[in-house]
Amino acid sequence: MMTLLRMLFVALALLVPGMALAHVSAAAPSGHLLAGLLHPWTGVDHLLGLMTLGALIRFAGGAAGRSLLAMAMAGLATGMLAGIGGLLLPANETLLALSLLASGLILLLVADRPRRGLGLLLMACSALHGYVHAVESSGSGFLAGFVISSVTLIGLGLVVAEISMTPRRMPARVLGAGTVLVALGGLLHL
Fold first, then answer.
1. How does DSSP classify residue 136?
2. pLDDT tier for residue 119 given thresholds of 50, 70 and 90
3. Count of structural domains, the chain
4. How far apart are CA 135 and CA 147, in angstroms?
């Protein structure tokens, strides 16, 4: 059974290479609030990545979960400020896909055993995402909408994790597996 699941995951990863590339909707100009609100909902990578973050926060629980959330939001804000400030980073899309892969693997393999350093990893991933979106956006309206939708999707991840509070944590593991698949698809597409 496990071999069949692995083969299915590999097949799906090969079939969905473009899923890790979200783009601003043509229905909303790139600098506007609406474009920012829509953006996280229009890419599977954003949906899964932010929900994965929420699930990891929930599994950490209590003060540790609040600390992870604060670190992730601080990373997002720092990345946005770096992007607005003109910092140039190479290989953005590759780094984004790798950060998605890392968070998906953590949720899939060790969600019930949060590790030290997870906060720094999530902070770095969030900073990278904030940076890229600040560089790609053309206005503060977009960034405000992006943050609002991002926090909403993190909340959905908290709900998925709450539903998963069973010994096998199946919904969270499925979320982690989906995140890994989309990240692999994105890496194959690059």
1. H
2. confident
3. 1
4. 15
Domain containing 133: what range?
44-189
Which long-range contacts (C-beta less than 8 Å, at least 24 apart) are formed by 1-9?
9/177, 9/180, 9/181
Contacts of 43 (CB under 8 A, 6+ apart): 19, 20, 21, 22, 23
Is 100 a member of any domain? yes
Cβ contact 20:151 at 8 Å: no
Q: Is residue 168 part of a domain?
A: yes
Asked if 188 contacts 23 with a C-beta cutoff of 8 angstroms, the reply is no
Place of tokens 């097949």: 11
Q: For the chain, what percent of residues have pLDDT higher than 90?
A: 12
Residue among 155, 154, 174 nearest 164 (CA): 174
Average pLDDT over residues 114-130: 85
| pLDDT value at 10 more than 70 | no
Residue 170 has pLDDT above 90, yes or no: no
The predicted model gives 115-129 an average pLDDT of: 86
Give how far the C-alpha of residue 66 lies from the chain's centroid of Cα atoms, to the nearest Å: 17
- Residue 134 located in a structural domain: yes
∠43-32-92 over CA atoms, to 5°?
Answer: 45
CA–CA gap between residue 81 and residue 135 (Å, rounded): 10
The DSSP output letter for 172 is H
Q: Is residue 3 part of a domain?
A: no
Q: Give the pLDDT score at 18.
A: 44
